[in-house]
Design brief:
The structure is a single chain. The protein has 141 residues and is of the alpha+beta class. It folds into 2 domains: 48 residues; 76 residues. Helix content is 52%, strand content 29%. It is built from 3 helices and 4 strands; from the N terminus they run H-H-H-E-E-E-E. Helix 1 crosses helix 2. The longest helix is centred in the first third of the chain and has 46 residues.
Length: 141
């Protein structure tokens, strides 16, 4: 290979590297807005869709989610007629030294007269996931 051919070959290689770098930057610039849009969409879905909120909570702290689920099941079982009960608020789970405290679990029960009766529950859940204490406040509605 002559010197001129070698220089031409080097310039082609450097142009190829520059082209790859430009393409990489262009792809990265296209992806960033999509990631931001996806993050905002996920935050909105977390606030508006209980299924997404539950999924995210389960992914972040599975033990706390299991404690909340145990409390919700115990509260539902404590209602007189579970067939007409619906969950309004899944409550907030807080870590304690002996397990978890779940407060603000709210169920609504449809009475035979057509009126809603609100029940507010709180629970203490052990580290093993067993409900230690279930407390009910009838809500007065």
């Amino acid at each position: 290979m002559s010197r001129k051919e070698k220089e031409t070959f080097r310039s082609v290689r450097s142009e190829s590297a520059q082209r790859r770098e430009r393409e990489y930057r262009r792809r990265r610039q296209r992806v960033i807005p999509l990631l931001i849009f996806g993050a905002v969409g996920l935050l909105i879905a977390k606030e508006e869709l209980p299924v997404v909120d539950s999924w995210i909570s389960r992914m972040l702290d599975a033990d706390a989610w299991n404690a909340g689920e145990a409390c919700r099941k115990a509260a539902l079982a404590a209602l007189a007629q579970v067939g007409y009960a619906r969950l309004l608020d899944s409550g907030k789970v807080e870590k304690t030294s002996a397990g978890y405290y779940v407060g603000g679990v709210e169920y609504v029960y449809l009475q035979p007269t057509g009126e809603d009766q609100y029940y507010l529950y709180s629970c203490n859940v052990s580290q093993a996931g067993e409900v230690v204490a279930l407390n009910r406040d009838d809500g007065g509605d």
